[in-house]
Amino acid sequence: MPDAPRLTLWGVGTSRTIRAHWAMAELGLAYQTRAIGARTGETQTAEYTALNPRQKIPLLQDDDFCIGESAAIVAYLSRTYSEGRTSLIPESPRDYAAWLEWSFFIVTELDSTSLYVMRRHKADALGHIYGTAPEVVARAGEYFRRQLRHVETALADGRTYLMGDRFNSADILLTTCLEWAIAYDVGICDNAHPYLERIKKREAYQRGRIANLPPASARPA
């Protein structure tokens, strides 16, 4: 197990914070959790704002180094702490390039351009902050389903994971988006269902989910 006692992860309770907790579990890293939540006021304290002026979670501290953005945290952990069979980044130049392509595609086209647009404008999500817009939500859902054809095509050959027979951090990003889409009743492509079931059986996935739970006092009654 890599020895990383200097790691502190800020943030729990969201589809983005779980990415970092899950990557930590996959890599077998020891770390401290600062269980602050989004839109609770905890990201606006002077202490946290000094670390992350964007006032967003998650945030990773590695000794005197800080990095935000969930996909960037996962990539940093994967590049810095991967060892042998636990590596979360492909090694060959072309596989690495394909990993970059998948990672950027997921966080831009599936997450921020589709699912987060829905979150911002759904009446039962953040619509009270950004304004409800049912047509925008519907169109974003349609766009997500169209973009998911890229995933459907990749998984059509029966591969175990997104890039073949070996799990990597792009699977972490994709899984969180698939679960998010299911929660929003957007639906996912046929080939993604068995893929998702395989992923959810991973021990590190289960540990990451538990680590991402908000403190009992912060959960809805």
Overall geometry comes to globular
Work out the oligomeric state of the chains in this entry. Answer: single chain
Quote the beta fraction: 5-15%
Rg, Cα atoms, Å: 17 Å
The portion of residues assigned to helices is: 40-55%
- Total of helices: 10
Task: Label the structural class.
Answer: alpha+beta
Distance between the termini: 37 Å
User: What's the arrangement of strands in the largest beta sheet?
Assistant: 2-1-3-4
* Low-confidence segments: none
What is the ordering of alpha helices and beta strands? EHEHEEHHHHHHHH
DSSP strand count: 4
| Mean model confidence by pLDDT | 93
Largest sheet: 4 strands, mixed
Task: Provide an overview of this structure.
- It is built from ten helices and four strands, in the order E-H-E-H-E-E-H-H-H-H-H-H-H-H.
- Helix 1 (17-27) packs antiparallel against helix 8 (169-183).
- By secondary structure, it is of the alpha+beta class.
- Strand 1, helix 1 and strand 2 form a beta-alpha-beta unit.
- Helix content is 52%, strand content 7%.
- It is globular and about 50 Å long.
- The termini are far apart.
- The model has no long low-confidence stretch (mean pLDDT 93).
- The longest helix has 29 residues, at 93-121.
- The chain has a four-stranded mixed sheet, with helices on one face.
